[in-house]
Amino acid sequence: MREGQGVRDELYERLRAYEGQAAAVAGSGKDLVNEVMIRHWCEAMGDANPAYTGPGAVAPPTMLQAWTMGGLSGHTDRGEAYDELFAMLDGAGYGSVVATDCEQEYLRPLRPGDRITFDAVIEEVSERKTTKLGTGYFITTRMDVRAQDEPAGTHRFRILKYRPAAAKKSPTAGEPERGRGSLRPRPVINRDNAGFWKGVAAHQLLIQRCAGCGTLRFPWLPGCNACGSAEWETAEASGEGTVFSYVVMHHPPFPAFSASEEAGPYAVALIELAEGVRMVSNVIGVPYDKVRVGMPVRLEFLRTDPELELPVFRGSEG
Predict the structure, then answer these.
(1) For the segment 114-149, what is each residue's pLDDT rounded down to a tens digit?
(2) Residues contacting residue 23 through CB under 8 Å, at least 6 positions apart
(3) Could you give the domains of the chain?
(4) What's CA 153's distance to the chain center, in Å?
(5) Whose C-alpha in 29, 92, 201, 227 is 20 to 30 A from the C-alpha of 115?
(6) CA-to-CA distance for 148 and 151, rounded, in angstroms?
């Protein structure tokens, strides 16, 4: 019988009692909406929309949750129900947690000087679910955000509290690696970046180009940072570029990176493509200690296993 099928889940019935209870009451943002945080956000996101600078500027809508965060010291206004719910799950063995997704609704622009307040409620606890990570419960919290006591937006945040799946048995000493355990981690492919990976499979490095203003963007995004248009097309990169910045990775031996050039140390670089956008990738073909800012590189496609091919860049010491 499949887990949960026809079996009464007494823990779930206890967890459901927390639906509708407060997760935060009369919370207050630690800072007013301000230009400094807006600037830092836009620089980190690469968002150059002029609506976020100068007189009359507003905050990017996606910063909605940022103004409610408690930082390292946290908030003192969190409801007891949320802590009780977590303690119940921890006590039942569901001690691991991972964020799964969030949804936001925007009701009014946030402007520098706005005072942010909020309430949060435990909106939903799912039935027990089994995922690749393990078995557990999805918990959805809804936060209602106000600016100057006016409704400003709603933020729904969903996590999975779970009991990790049993680890697969590791091969004994001298036994060859088998199955997917020795393969490279797989990229996360979703509706926003599926076209990029389809291009990689065809040995094309595709860049998004806004159909509204023509601005190129990378990595792939659902909308244009420059004009906000959701319409776009693709342009194939020439494959030429230079090293804009880089780090040298050192890590313990890992079966998926057993090839001599990948065993480490190795260089991971921010590559500036000839088209003007930047992407993160490995630099191959030169020793890690010879990689330099400004080094010219050329696109290649590296097959790491029968199911995975990745874009990398070959450097030249000349």
Answers:
(1) 999 999 999 999 999 999 889 999 999 999 999 999
(2) 78, 79, 81, 82, 120, 121, 122, 141, 143
(3) 10-164 (3.10.129.10), 190-315 (no CATH)
(4) 22
(5) 227
(6) 8
